[in-house]
Amino acid sequence: MSDYAFDPVDILLVEDNPGDVKLTQEAFKEGQIANTLHVVTDGVEALDFLFQRGEYADAPRPDFVLLDLNLPRKNGDEVLEELRADPECKDVPVIILTGSSAQEDVIRSYELAANAYLTKPVDPGEFIQTILSTERYWLSVVRLPTDADLD
Predict the structure, then answer these.
(1) Cβ(100)–Cβ(75) under 8 Å?
(2) Which helix (H) or strand (E) holds 118?
């Protein structure tokens, strides 16, 4: 059972690798993280979810986003750039969770106002621990804005 007390939140995972989606879901289960994990598999779907378009018209505004960089249709940089340009969504925390450890990707992500940059560990156990640590940090240490804060 988790030692962390917090209100459930909505998390958007933007990830095209089914194995990484499964590991993230396992981390939530293992850590008994009682939040709603929404999953989309490409950059266009991510923007539709974030901007509540099309099939995502009723989607909740995520409390934070776990964003891969290497995505089909629109990459993570493009998603982040569009998100930050929108006054309604620019303050949604975005954590880059990617396989790239390239310095230019790190720099570009922070230039586009990512809140954190994490390189996915190759080992599945380490991957799960990274997800658990990230969730716990963002859900128990950091104060996220509530809907009331945004009004």
Answers:
(1) no
(2) strand 116-119
Q: CA-CA distance, 30 to 25, in Å (whole number)? A: 9
Q: Are 128 and 105 in contact (CB under 8 A)?
A: no
Measured distance CA(22)–CA(27) in Å, rounded: 9
The rounded distance, in Å, linking the Cα atoms of 123 and 63 is: 27
What residues pair up with 39 in beta bridges, in sequence order?
13
23: phi then psi, degrees, rounded to nearest 5: -60, -40
User: Two tokens at 18?
Assistant: 């089914």
Q: Helices 43-50 and 76-85 sit at what angle, rounded to 10 degrees? A: 20
Give me 68's structure tokens.
């891969």
Write down the pTM of the prediction.
0.84
pLDDT for res 48: 97
Q: Quote the mean pLDDT of the chain.
A: 84
Q: What is the pLDDT of residues 44-60, one digit of tens each?
A: 999 999 999 999 999 99
What are the structure tokens assigned to 3, written together?
């030692």
Q: Which tokens go with 88? A: 């309604």
